[in-house]
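S2.1 Query sequence (AMP-binding protein)
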Amino acid sequence: MSDLLSLLSEHALRCPWQPALICGTEQITYGELEDYSSRLALYLDGKCRHTKNPIVVYGHKHPFMAVCFLACAKAGRPFCPVDTSIPAPQLQMILDNTAPPVVFAVEALPASCQCHFVLPLEQIRLLLKETRISSREVSLLTSALKPSRQEDLFYILFQAEENGIPRGVEITADCLDRSLDPFVYTQQETGTEQEVLSGSRSAVVLNQTPFSFPLSAANFYAALARCDTLWCLDRKTQTDPELLACSLRCSRASVFVGTPSFAEACLDLADFCQETLPDLKHFHFCGELLENKTVQKLYARFPAARIYNTYGHGETTSAVTQICITPELARTAGPLPCGSPRSGTFAEIWDSSGNPVEEGRKGEIVILGDTVSPGYYKNSFLTKESFFTCIRDGREINGYRTGDLGYLLDGVLFCCGRIDLQVKLHGYQVELEDIERNLLRLPQISRAAVLPKVRNHKVSNLYAWVVCPDKHISDKTYTSRLKEDLLSFLPEHLIPKKFIFVKQLPVNGSGRLDRQALEHMVS
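Output structure tokens follow.
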């Protein structure tokens, strides 16, 4: 049995009354999570005994999604979490690709989607009520099932691609269990932190990203493994400042796990501070580059906090590096470090020919180790393009070419952004995210995004979208002042030609900067 399933069974015995997930008015305890998932697993075993096709779980942060996930794992069936934010055509592609024997529709499927058999939430609830056997009998019957273990597929995360065709990252039970080790068992430096993060004292963990987020293991599964309470912020709450402020106050959260873009949205709230949220003392960032200015603003609001930067991909199951960003470190020139690799993981920097480069030189970040996915579901072409196996320390392990630009210093990984965000401008190789970091060096700019303007298949100039909270003069005058200030640390050819002033930058369903939305504005 997966270590995660064993831990959850222990939590249900030790503290069955403790809430496992809370989302709005819906919540579920660890006791209910164990009992409901076991009953649903028995149903699955009878219904799907003759197929090992994945089960699709469709919804948005409802606690019963966790019931469905664990039921699949207990019945030895891989599952595919799919958030309601995914467009209907892409959802249909996932359904066609996986051919699920059943879809757990915790929320209603789009009317245009066709699949073999759908079990909506109302029928799931009814099914659990009609299982008229005791919890003890359910436990005995469940023990006879063959749950997901070792190299079995545990879940498949489908990620939307620019071409509209989703690709599914395969995560095995072993990959998930190993990825949880640092979050569950690592002893931290201080007593309070050790209690909160090692599981001896339960925490309330803010859940920002959908359960289908590529790095969900660092938040969703890690919190459940630690017997924490996940306080889920749904899409409506995150986009309404009043609802968000109210939910944060009610949560009594002690741990924030999310993207820097979401932290910036929270920092727009006057009540997002230590006085209003006295328990919130741990910030863990993933999914995007963490900027110095964001960390500095957080320390100004939460002086007692500890802020961690991490690095990982859905293809590596979870974050594979971690480092505490101190106030002193946040004042140094960026990019901020991402930390050293966890035990069992190697981070290397390769050139375009696949050869390791010397320390300090930039190249593609390559992650190797025991949490790296075996590949993409039913897509051997993309798997061969990004994944490989090699020998390290006398054993064969999986490797993944991330497509990120970075370098290593004294074993510490630094990420500089995406390689595909490098462009040629007037003969110069330009890193767009490096320009964004330089824009943020100006005190008047709180957020920034830079995109190329392309004419006739060639980059003609750069556009910058900036958030300037204290701007009180015309766009033309303010742009001139910004360009003049930028000349002190950027060459003229790297200064964006056009500045577009916005109140906030667009984010996608995962809480990341939505560059595609900005691209539509450019075109």
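Confidence is low (pLDDT under 50) at residues 185-200. The two ends are 52 Å apart (CA to CA).
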